[in-house]
Amino acid sequence: MHDFLPYAWFKGECVPFEEAKISIATHALHYGTGAFGGMRAIPDPENNNSFLLFRVDKHVKRLCQSAKLLLTDLDEGYVLDSLKTWLKANKPQKPIYIRPFVYTSDLGIAPRLHNIETDFFIYGLELGDYLSPEGVTCRISSWKRQEDSSLPLRGKISGAYITSSLAKTEAVNSGFDEALLMNSRGKISEASGMNLFIVRDGDLITPGVDHDILEGITRASVIEIAKYLNINVIERPVDKTELFIADEVFLTGTAAKITPIKQIECTEIKKNMPLMNLLRENLLLITENKSKDFAHWITSISIDR
Predict the structure, then answer these.
(1) Do 111 and 180 lie in a common domain?
(2) Do residue 170 and residue 216 come from a single domain?
(3) 59 and 78 fall within a common domain
(4) CATH number, domain at 55?
(5) For residue 140, is it within any domain?
(6) Cβ–Cβ < 8 Å for 40, 254
(7) Are residues 118 and 140 located together in one domain of the fold?
(8) Residue 14: inside a domain
(9) Where are the alpha helices (DSSP H) in 13-152?
(10) Which of 67, 93, 126, 186 lies deepest, with the highest CB count within 10 Å?
(11) Are strands 248-253 and 298-302 parallel, antiparallel or unpaired?
């Protein structure tokens, strides 16, 4: 049972969550012609009347870019204003996950992106740890990550997540927590909804954007933090066998934050992950607005309790 926040932003206003409903004939429901975002927000440890949003500008920009890939315009200012109004209406008490969604709202049966109505909504729920901070087990999925030539992978297009859903369920049903997907070239791409990092000989390595990954905001943030800490970062192809001999392996994502991988297939990964722990500690300080050098990543919104 999810603890959904009481209000949703729906058709240009805040309405009770239970009243934010769409028709069974909605175009996006049938064809996956929607795009979503995912943001975390936490109560400000220093101010009970404020909530802190992590890199909200980047999240809003990516959502609007995803909308563009669906041939629709979504204004960044409108999204941000809607988000603020929605947050103030809900007045949450605990850390939350926010799901904004742009979609083809027309009622019809033709798969298309022209001459069609679109709409935008926001809802949220209380969310602690999405994955265990102690670590997860992973298997290599039998499903392959799509190619950018067949789907616009630079956006979080809802229809693309059928592959993630298949891979996640395959992993769980075979006794693992998560799935790692390879791309069509046989290189590791990402997990079902997270980016992947490995550490080898002190270098932080992650598949590049040319390997059909989602350009994750947490991924980009970890890279920036690592460079700030003088850690050498390499974006390059990652082979399956590298996972089994790496010094550290971990996942990043808005929901997952930074999560260690403790086992891949039948191979246990080293438990000692000093570099990952350093990055995770720094990311936590930043999200709690306790880092002066990264204060510009945090947006404080007053919710007037």
Answers:
(1) no
(2) yes
(3) yes
(4) 3.30.470.10
(5) yes
(6) yes
(7) no
(8) yes
(9) 27-31, 56-69, 76-90
(10) 67
(11) unpaired
Q: How many CB atoms lie within 10 A of CB 113?
A: 14
Measure the CA–CA gap between 29 and 6, rounded to whole angstroms. Answer: 23
Amino acid symbol at 252: T
How far apart, in Å, do the first and last CA atoms of the chain sit?
Answer: 26
Instruction: Report which residue type is found at 174.
Output: S
Q: Partners of 258 in the beta sheet?
A: 252
CA 11 to chain centre: 24
- For residue 152, what is the domain's CATH number? 3.20.10.10
Q: Which residue has the tokens 């975390």?
A: 40
298 occurs within a structural domain: no
Position 141: which residue type? S
Render each residue's pLDDT in the chain as its tens digit; 305 residues: 578 999 999 999 999 999 999 999 999 999 999 999 999 999 998 888 899 999 999 999 999 999 999 999 999 999 999 999 999 999 999 999 999 999 999 998 999 999 999 999 999 999 988 899 999 999 999 999 999 999 899 999 999 999 999 999 999 999 999 999 999 999 999 999 999 999 999 999 999 999 999 999 999 999 999 999 999 999 999 999 999 999 999 999 999 999 999 999 999 998 899 999 999 999 999 999 999 999 999 999 998 75
Kindly give, in sequence order, each residue whose CB lies less than 8 Å from that of residue 237, ignoring residues fewer than 6 positions away.
Answer: 185, 187, 207, 208, 211
One domain, residues 73 and 184:
no
- The set of long-range contacts for 227-234, using a CB threshold of 8 Å and a minimum separation of 24, is 228/293, 229/278, 229/279, 229/282, 231/202, 231/203, 231/204, 231/275, 232/202, 232/203, 232/204, 233/203, 233/204, 233/205, 233/206, 234/203, 234/204, 234/205, 234/206
Range of the domain at 55: 7-126
Residue 98 to residue 267: CA distance in whole angstroms: 35
Judge if 240 and 212 occupy the same domain: yes
Q: Is residue 287 part of a domain?
A: no
Classify 278 as helix, strand or coil.
Answer: helix
